[in-house]
Please model this.
Amino acid sequence: MKPGNEVTHEIDNPQPKQRLFMSAYTRYVCYGGARGGGKSHAVRMKAHAMALNYAGINILIVRRTYPELYENHIRPMIEMTSRTEGVVRLAKYVDKSKTLTFFNKSRIKFGYCNGDFDVEQYQGQEYDVLFIDEATHFTEYMFDWLNATVRGANDFPKRTYLTCNPGGVGHSWVKEKFVNAKRDDSTFIFATVHDNAILKKKDPGYLKMLQELPDGLREAWLYGNWDSFVGQYYRMWDREIHVIEPFDIPVHWRRYRTLDYGLDMLAVLWVAIDEDNNAYVYKELHESDLNIYDAAKRILEINGDDKIYDTLAPGDLYSRSQVNGKTVDEMFRSAGVAFSMASNDRVAGWQALAEWLRVVTDLDGITKTSRMKVFNNCYNLIRCLPQLQADNKNPTDCATQPHEITHVCDALRYFAITHARKTPSPKPEPSPLTEHKRKAIGLDRKKYIDDFI
Model:
C-alpha cells in the first residue's frame, strides 16, 4: 500500500483538512492554525488507522500534561477500540504502562512531558511514528529529545506529526521549523474553526466566543495568525529588523561582556556600542555543566583578543559559598574573569531591554530599525528571546519557565539595565556674548567657553 494511504475504513469520515493531514506522507506533518480545527481528533484517527494498517508498528502520542493526555486521547481511544472484530477485541489498554496494544501487535504508547526533565524517560526508546499534540506547549529542547525516538531498522514509515495553535512557549520554534519553512520533508496544513463543519454545527457558540476575544488573542485563536503570539513578552521582536549579518567591529567601539551563571548553564554575550549608542550583540557562549574554573576558561577562549571595557554579572554571584567561604565573583577573578555588579531588578531590566529593542522608523520614514541588533551567529539568543512569555501573576515581569531559555535572556537584561540611559542630546553651542556682558561678569571669551562646556 502506498505510504500515506493507510486504511480508514474503521474511522469516521474525516473533514477536508483532516483528510489532508491523514494522507500526507512526508517525514514531518504539521497541522496548525486556529482553535477548533479538529486537530486532536485527526491525531486519533491517523494513529488508529496506522495501527490497523501496519501490524506491529510502534506509535507514541504525547501531550504536555497527563490530564490533557487522558481527556484528549486515552479515554477516546479506549472507546474507539472497545468493540470487537469478529470475536477479537481491537485493542486492550493497560493503564500501568499507558499502552494500547492491538490484536495485530501494533502498539500505541501515551506519554506526557510536563517539564524538560521528563524527556529523559524517553532516552533509548524507539518508535516508528510520533504524534506531538499541541506542539507549541513544548520547548524546542523537548521536541529534539522526543523526535530522536523516531527510528528503527524496519520497514515501517518513520514520521513525526505535530498539531499546534499560535502562542505558547514553543511558538517560535514551531513557526520557524514548520510554518514558515520551505522544506521537502515537511508538510504544513493550515486549519481554522471554519474547516470544522461538525463543531460549527453542534456548537455555534464556540465561534461566537472566538469572535469576541480581545485583540491579539482573537487573531491567534480565530484566524490562526502566527505573527500574533499570545503571551509573548517582546512582541516587537522582528528577525528581519533585529538580526543582521556579522561584520568587523571597529576597534574604537566599547565592548562589554554580560553573563548569567549557574551550574546548569553558563550564558555569556559580547556586546559592542557604537558612536551613536547603538548596541550590537556580536558573540555568545551558551554551555551547560561547567564548574567556575572551566567556565572562566571557556569565556577567555571565546573572548580571544577582544579588549573588554567591562564584564557585567548579577549580584547573586557575590554571595559566599558555605563550602569554602569564597564568593563566585572571587573564584572567577582568580581564574582571570572579573565582574562588575549589575542590577537584578527584573521588571526594570526587562523594560530597559524593551527600550533597546523598540522598533522605530528612520528619518526617511520608510526603513524600520532598532537601537539593538544581534549578529546571526548568536543562535541561542535569537532562539530564546522571542520565546519569553509574560508572567501570569505579574505581566510586567517575564516568566521564569521554561528555565532553559531564560539564562541568555537574563544575561542581556543585565546589559540593558546597566546601559538604560538614553542617548545623550548634543551639547548646545555657547551663545555669543557682547563685550559689555563679558566685562560685566568678569570672563574673557575663552574662559567662558571652557566653563560652559
